[in-house]
């Protein structure tokens, strides 16, 4: 994994760099917004760790510029600004996560791992067949025995996540994180309501959804269904 670290505090930048080096990341770094923008546009990075208060080009302007030009690197903002409107502005400008200073390196590591998992989900197979069901991630469809099942956005994302991990029991927290990210939350009851709706839609066309509830643990896909 290759990381671009754009942070004007030399001490903080050095600390993050050392920590990421130990974890096996390849890290490029700068404390200047203009140089960071140039690096982001001329190299490919898996993650960009971005401070907001930067010389020459501020973090939000940098972020908007790279998104406008189609840069899809996962971006986590580091900022001392902790107000809700600051976090919302960062996320709406194209960030994938927002971490308020001061923070522990362990938390930064956890955020990177979580963003990486979401990226892995996006890289998985476009079409998945389980039992008589075929899920197509490219056109966001689920069909069974020739019938298309009309799903809401979150219904589809929940089924997609479970179908992509058929051998695992996934708890509600994992499902929520995969579906709506770390800045929102789907409760256990909400997830169950979504799955209940999908089950009814499948039953209406004579099929049984192969997603089961393992009481007290979470949900899994029964590939033998």
From TrEMBL:
4-aspartylphosphate: modified positions: 51
Annotated ranges, domain Response regulatory: 2-116
Pfam families, alphabetized: Response_reg (PF00072), Trans_reg_C (PF00486)
Family matches, as SUPFAM superfamilies: CheY-like
PROSITE patterns in UniProt: OMPR_PHOB, RESPONSE_REGULATORY
DNA-binding region boundaries: 125-223
Keywords: DNA-binding, Phosphoprotein, Transcription, Transcription regulation, Two-component regulatory system
Domain (OmpR/PhoB-type): residue spans on this chain: 125-223
Entry protein name: Transcriptional regulator
């Amino acid at each position: 994994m290759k990381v671009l670290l754009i942070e004007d505090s030399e001490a903080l930048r050095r600390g993050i760099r050392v920590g990421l080096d130990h974890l096996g990341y390849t890290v490029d770094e700068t404390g200047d917004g203009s140089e960071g923008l140039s690096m982001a546009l001329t190299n490919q990075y898996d993650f960009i760790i971005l401070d907001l208060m930067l010389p020459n080009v501020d973090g939000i302007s940098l972020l908007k510029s790279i998104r406008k030009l189609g840069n899809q690197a996962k971006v986590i903002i580091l900022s001392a600004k902790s107000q809700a409107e600051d976090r919302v502005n960062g996320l709406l400008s194209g960030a994938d996560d927002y971490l308020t200073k001061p923070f522990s390196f362990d938390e930064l590591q956890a955020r990177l791992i979580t963003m990486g998992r979401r990226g892995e989900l996006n890289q998985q197979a476009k079409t998945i067949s389980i039992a008589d069901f075929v899920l197509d991630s490219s056109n966001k469809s689920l069909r069974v025995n020739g019938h298309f099942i009309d799903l809401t956005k979150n219904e589809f994302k929940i089924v997609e996540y479970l179908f992509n991990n058929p051998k695992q029991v996934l708890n509600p927290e994992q499902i929520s994180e995969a579906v709506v990210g770390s800045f929102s939350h789907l409760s256990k009851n909400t997830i169950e309501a979504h799955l209940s709706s999908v089950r009814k839609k499948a039953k209406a066309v004579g099929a049984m959804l192969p997603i089961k509830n393992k009481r007290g643990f979470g949900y899994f896909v029964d590939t033998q269904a």
